[in-house]
Write a structure and sequence with these properties.
The protein is of the alpha+beta class and about 140 residues long. The chain is built from 5 helices and 3 strands; from the N terminus they run βαααααββ.
């Protein structure tokens, strides 16, 4: 017997802080951290161009502010591409569920047998996972 469960999470259910972190990562953390001033400035110019193109999935003023903040953090050598915080958040969200649903949540977050639709720019991401259970 095959059952399809409704999605457990969507971007619209995430907190504003989580959404801001995703937007920040899409603009400021997409490339390897720069090491020299010229590399930092080149990355900043690239971020500004993305903001000006309207393809950053966020308000231009916010995008410009994030680009400037990323440049400042790169100058302090505190900008990294780590997904550790995202991974911890993913696990924490699943741990908050009842025991019976945790394994399915982790399966869905892993991407196994999961289709994803939508985008942050469109307002949300919908994940659908097919979980096969033995018949009775």
């Amino acid at each position: 017997m095959m059952s399809i469960r409704p999605p457990l999470f969507s971007v619209t259910a995430w907190s504003t802080g989580t959404l801001a972190a995703i937007l920040l990562s899409s603009v400021a953390l997409a490339a390897t951290p720069a090491k020299t001033n010229s590399e930092i400035e080149a990355r900043y110019q690239s971020d500004v161009a993305l903001c000006n193109s309207g393809q950053s999935n966020q308000d231009k003023a916010d995008c410009m502010r994030e680009a400037g903040a990323a440049r400042d953090e790169a100058r302090r050598n505190r900008l990294n591409n780590s997904n550790q915080a995202y991974d911890k958040n993913e696990v924490a969200r699943c741990q908050a569920l009842p025991t019976a649903e945790r394994d399915e949540c982790m399966l869905q977050m892993s991407g196994s047998n999961t289709t994803t639709q939508g985008s942050v720019g469109a307002g949300g991401v919908l994940r659908e996972t097919t979980i096969t259970t033995p018949g009775k």
